[in-house]
Amino acid sequence: MNASQQHHSASLKVTGGTLFDGSSAPFPNPGLLIREGRVTVLGAAALSADADDVFDASRCVVSAGFIDLCCNLREPGNGQKGNIATETRAAAHGGFTTVCASPETSPVNDSGAVTHLIREGAASRGVVKVLPIGAITRGLEGDMLSDMAGLKSAGCVAVGNGSRGIRNARILRRCMAYAQTFGLTVMFSPENQSLAADGYAHDGQVATRLGLLGIPEVAETAAVMEMLLLAEETGVRLHLSQISCARSVEMLADARNRGIQVTADVAMHQLVFTEAALAGFDSRFHVRPPLRSEADRQALLEGVRSSVIDAIVSQHQPHDSAAKQAPLPATEPGLSSIESVLSLGLKLVAAQELSLPRLLAALTAGPAGVLGCSTVLSEGAPADLCIFDPDGHWTPSASTLMSVGLHAPMMGVELPGRVRLTLVNGQVAWSDTE
Prior knowledge:
The chain has helices at 44-48, 84-93, 112-125, 148-154, 169-181, 193-196, 205-210, 218-234, 246-257, 268-272, 294-305, 341-350, 356-363, 365-371; strands spanning 11-15, 18-20, 27-28, 32-35, 38-42, 53-56, 61-64, 66-71, 96-101, 129-135, 158-160, 186-188, 201-202, 214-215, 238-240, 262-267, 311-313, 385-394, 415-424, 427-431. By secondary structure, it is of the alpha/beta class.
């Protein structure tokens, strides 16, 4: 949704609650006035100003809008797994105001033409901001480099390989060197395909007990090491997407200390669940990278707490029901997760595994820093806001989920945290007035 295409008539005053923009500690909301898509007054003067509407945010957190670095919108595609209209509405329901669209579309986003298609779809049917990520190789096949100059000029904010590996290290090096010349960040999911082979679960106790084919952690860590060394050599800005192992966090911290330009994210489900979620052969938890051990989960949490991991992502992958109904190895990986990210994070806060300010920073300022933008709520800033009630509750179900994908991580379970209002450029993208 582009600001230029919106018709801003209403002004909105937000009173009460706690204000948080990811950059400093939360503080009582002094008053917030929004006009023409921007924050026009922040402070006591906002309370006495005239506004068309007033939103009482008492007991709520008024946060900068969440930014998702990894979201599958399934468009272009055949539509049965979702589209820009359904999945951006799901994003707004989850409190997200900006999503980075994965290049894994059909056709793959490896050309300016496909990027334009995504941007036009987002402008006409999307309710949140959509930032396309371009495919770093043609068709994401890992062989020939894509037209990165064309992708950048069409509006891609970064280039990456989606969830697929690049088998050939020489091609990986060329990708990085080429992206570096255009000043593009590369976003890679680290996986050594020959080591991962046909696996689909963490190579640990649960896989051994159930007879599942395992993906060893070295499939990830070997790829992380290779990518860090190549990034150091080429000078490219590297972003490691969805790391899942304790050892990856160590290597990341070490690379940062050596001055390598590297950032990273982790999917929310990796912070909440472990390989034990597969114990009942539950195909919803067939994800890639796989859910790993409790020791890995603890290391990932510590990575978020210490800011070694910059951002938490949804890794939202909506599927039609058939894709998840086969026997476990034959199902497609991925959770329909963007609507539950905040709630699962609040469960971590309740368990004292993560502080609320750190959770919100990893959903706002952290991903914004990766993209080179800001979430600071100051006068003149775009009014991208998520207002949520941390003590409210909701239950994911076929009737409450906006996504086409009904394989959310905790279907039928009451979850904490209810998004009351999501504003994108001052326009209501989601409203819950219960």
